[in-house]
Amino acid sequence: MITKYIYLTTFCCSLLVISCKKEIIVEKQNVQVNPGQKFIEDNFLTIVDTVAYSRGAFITTPSDSISYPKLSVKLFQRTNYIEELEEFTNSYFAKNKDLSVIFKDVIDKKEYSIVTLDSSFPKSIGKYYFFFNENEQDKTMKYAGRIDIENFKIYRNKAVLLLSKSVGKYGTTFIVFLIKENGTWKVYKKDVLLLS
Prior knowledge:
Layout: H1 2-29, H2 35-48, H3 51-55, E1 71-75, H4 83-95, H5 97-102, H6 104-107, E2 124-125, E3 128-131, E4 142-155, E5 158-167, E6 170-181, E7 184-195
Parallel strand pairs: 1-3, 1-4
Antiparallel strand pairs: 2-3, 4-5, 5-6, 6-7
């Protein structure tokens, strides 16, 4: 009788453990993925590049050539649409008609992708270690600068965005064109749009 009770108890405990594991798996499957954040996360090094790895900052002089194992980067937590930049973008497309044709479907898309990077965004990618607020900055690392992604549009296998890299009051805004080929996003063209 006691052995039947032990077997029955063991069986019930096993069912309980299995059902708990199943709930955890189902819960993990129901996690919503922010597609814009996933795009930025998966393609960050492609978009931003790794030049700062060998220079120590996003804005440098040709003589800067110290390599750092970790670089602190202030990342703006939200991709915004900035209407003032639209004038520069339109002027760029007027001068680069070939790109206007290739990326017409993306350019003609009316909506911009406004992405807010949430707490699941990685704390680092490559040698870049991110912080969103000044009080989160790790002062033991070399500060490479700030990254802003603005006026971001994505449509099927093409994307266009503005990338601003700055250190202090100096900065560069690039227009970046990306194409997805064989499942991988690649920079098709990257040009300087503004210097400050």
